[in-house]
Amino acid sequence: MKTLKDEQREIARLYMDEGYSMMQIAQQFKCSVSTIRYWLDKNNVKRRSINEAINNIYSTKFNKDPFYLNKNLSKKDEELKIAGTMLYWGEGAKTGNAVKFANSDPEMIVLFINFLIKVCGISQNRLKVLMHIYPDHDEEALKAFWSRTTHIPTDRFYKSHVHIGKIGTYKRKSPYGTLAVSYSDKKLLNILLSWIDQCKQDLQ
After folding, report:
1. The Insertion element IS150 protein InsJ-like helix-turn-helix domain covers which part of the protein (predicted)?
2. Which terminus of the chain is more exposed, N or C, with fewer CB under 10 A?
3. Which of 202, 152, 138 lies closest to 180 in space, CA to CA?
4. SS3 label, residue 2
């Protein structure tokens, strides 16, 4: 049977080593959050910052890898940050709860994904994509092409959206269709929007 000291050590371990929130620990021990807070304070356990708490909730409760903004950008990465921000200003979704960027140019798609990984510090395994194609496109061939280009496996492709149009028309104009890349994170979306606002101010 666990003693009170054993439980206190377990509470501290879950909070410090496992990244559990106080609410998650309280649920596990069937007690109030204030009780967990009391024992953490009594044992001089340092509280997390708000950002650390949010990231830990993502990884423990929602099983999502958090993103970590790169604060030590090289000159090349600074240029990538500007390019990615400008791309999102032009082609990105400004509302909702996710970062969404769509384009038919494979190089632009790759550049934006590199921006998310190198500048925003996302985990690539949380990226999902949606193909917008037309009836005369070869869906399976395009899925294989975009998977090779983005290094995103096909099991993270949503069901393709097929636009009804004249056969033979859109294939010549857009041989690869359009790919929409999405990363579900409202916090990152707000950060990108703030970078866009900063660009607007700098260009005035």
Report:
1. 8-44
2. N
3. 152
4. coil
Q: What is the pLDDT of residue 1?
A: 44
User: Model-level pTM?
Assistant: 0.69
Can you state the percent helix, strand and coil of the chain, rounding each to 5?
Answer: 55, 10, 35
Q: Model confidence over 16-38: pLDDT tens digits?
A: 776 677 877 888 888 888 888 88
CATH of domain 75-203: 3.30.1330
Q: What is the pLDDT of residues 38-56, one digit of tens each?
A: 888 888 888 766 555 555 5
Instruction: Provide the pLDDT confidence category of residue 5 given band limits of 50, 70 and 90.
Output: confident
Cβ 131 vs Cβ 161: under 8 Å: yes
Query: Residue 161: CB partners within 8 Å, gap ≥ 6?
Result: 130, 131, 132, 133
Nearest to 16 by CA among 68, 62, 60, 71: 60
